[in-house]
Amino acid sequence: MSSSGSGIVSLRNVGKTFESGTVALNHFSLDVREGEFVSLLGPSGCGKSTVLRIIAGLSAPSAGAIEWPGDTASEGKIGFVFQEPTLMPWADVAANVRLPLRLAHADEVQSRAAVLQALEQVGLADFAHAFPRELSGGMKMRTSIARALATEPQLLLMDEPFAALDEITRFKLNNDLLTLWQALRRTVIFVTHSVFESVYLSQRIVLMTPRPGRVFAEIAIPAPYPRDERFRTSADYAGYCRQVAETLGKAMGGAP
Amino acid sequence: MSDRALRIGLPVLMLALVLVAWDLVVRAFAIPPFVLPSPGLVLSTLIADGGLLWQSLLVTLTTTFEGFLLAAIGGIGLAVLFSQSRLIEYSLYPYAVILQVTPIVAIAPLLLIYLPQPLAVLACAWIVAFFPVLANTTLGLASVDHNLIALFDLYQATRWQLLWNLKLPSALPQMLAGLRIAGGLSLIGAVVAEIAAGSAGAGSGLAYRIAESGYRLNIPRMFAALLLLSLAGIAIFFALSALSHLALRRWHESAVKRER
């Protein structure tokens, strides 16, 4: 299933050099289309997170340009999910999810409805008044995703969101994320260092090489959605994983 | 016996043993009251001089409370100011440290020369109490989760929203720890200044009563006043601990009960 949507964001020859002199990105170019699920895959330190931060406007590129072709997605319409849940421990789940709306001075009644909807989407409606410390790691991450969805962003940026979770929880969240993506049709840019996770989730995988970070290859995963546990154990899936792992091995400049 | 019963019961038992031993020693060696009064005499003095001591206690507690309040406002206010402007922090922080490391006993006589006596006492209470609030709040404001700051950036939060919705709540545990220390210290500051003032022959606080009773060899009253002072210190400590617990019990690790 290939997406035929129009472009949502394009990075043109983006470079990023930190004050320390580290070149994180060099001539990095990427086009993302509306409704697409793209993964950025690469070893740690290859600048994947830097790409997300630049798209989110949290970090300014040292070179190159970012283009937003449509007006549907401006910087205000971005949701961000960090590697850690990044919740405010003094606020309950509902207040955490409501934060972006509160900062935007959104209408009280509308935000309450939006929060409830976001919590239902991630299956946490019953935990609205729990505090983060009372939640499991997976539930904290669900809260974080609900918060990112609360503003109904056109573009969802996810920075290794499931890396710290156990495998069972990660698989469950992978499935739920795909279900959500199919229902909402938001564009997702997903950063991961797991070959298996990227193949399972994405329509397209962008492989990156480290120091300086740049695109090494792009691999499409044309397997149809919905993908479920049967896909996870299929020969097709294993084949894609082998292909991606081999390419990643080449990207690293050695044997896989 | 439960842990809780032991934690309360054992100190009480200890106190009773010490009081009995104290009483026995005074009786056995027939120690005169101007050297060491018996516990019973201290208690009866406390009751007999109750009116006078109570008035003095109120004076000292008022100073302590005012000093504490000013320290809280000044410490938190200055910490917030520091977190907003590095230039202000660099300009002022060293002097806050100097104020803290100079012994208050040495500053008090000087303050008494320049300021009217009640104001000098208040200034001493403030000087010793304000630094822990400043230092702790500054630490708290500087230790905010950087990802949460990025999140606030992403949603284009204003400076005020960042301070009010993120930095201050996040610094609350450290702030409360600073306030808890400041409570005890403002009592100490007030007492030090009153003692210094007492040697100049003016004052009406509880510490002044102690100094005065010392000159008059009224040792039982000294003990009674001292007892009141430490009870006041204990009350302040518990009040601030309770406040801290109430504010943090829902979310902060320090206040959460864990089952093992």
Account of the protein in words:
Chain A has 256 residues and is α/β, with parallel strands linked by helices. Chain A folds into two domains: 1-73 and 154-256, Rossmann fold (3-Layer(aba) Sandwich), CATH 3.40.50.300; 78-152, no CATH class. Chain A is 36% helix and 23% strand. In chain A, the strands form two sheets. A six-stranded mixed sheet of chain A has the order 5-6-7-3-8-9, with helices on both faces. A three-stranded antiparallel sheet of chain A has the order 2-1-4, covered by helices on one side. The two termini of chain A are 28 Å apart. The longest helix of chain B is centred in the C-terminal third of the chain and has 41 residues, at 159-199. Chain B folds into two domains: 1-31; 37-255, Orthogonal Bundle (MetI-like fold), CATH 1.10.3720. Chain B has 260 residues and is an all-alpha fold. The model of chain B has no long low-confidence stretch (mean pLDDT 89). Chain B is 82% helix and 0% strand. At the A-B interface, helix 2 of A face helix 7 and helix 8 of B.
Entry keywords:
heterodimer; A: 256 residues; alpha/beta; Rossmann fold; three-stranded antiparallel sheet; 8 helices; 23% strand; globular; B: 260 residues; mainly alpha; MetI-like fold
Write the topology of this structure:
The complex is a heterodimer of chains A (256) and B (260).
Chain A: E1 7-17, E2 23-33, E3 37-41, H1 48-56, E4 63-67, E5 78-81, H2 93-103, H3 108-121, H4 137-149, E6 155-159, H5 167-184, E7 187-192, H6 195-201, E8 204-209, E9 214-220, H7 229-232, H8 235-251
Parallel strand pairs in A: 3-7, 3-8, 5-6, 6-7
Antiparallel strand pairs in A: 1-2, 1-4, 8-9
Helix pairs in contact in A: 2-3, 2-4, 3-4, 6-8
Chain B: H1 3-28, H2 39-48, H3 50-84, H4 86-101, H5 104-114, H6 117-142, H7 146-154, H8 159-199, H9 206-215, H10 219-248
Helix pairs in contact in B: 2-10, 3-4, 3-6, 3-8, 3-9, 5-6, 5-8, 6-8, 8-9, 8-10, 9-10
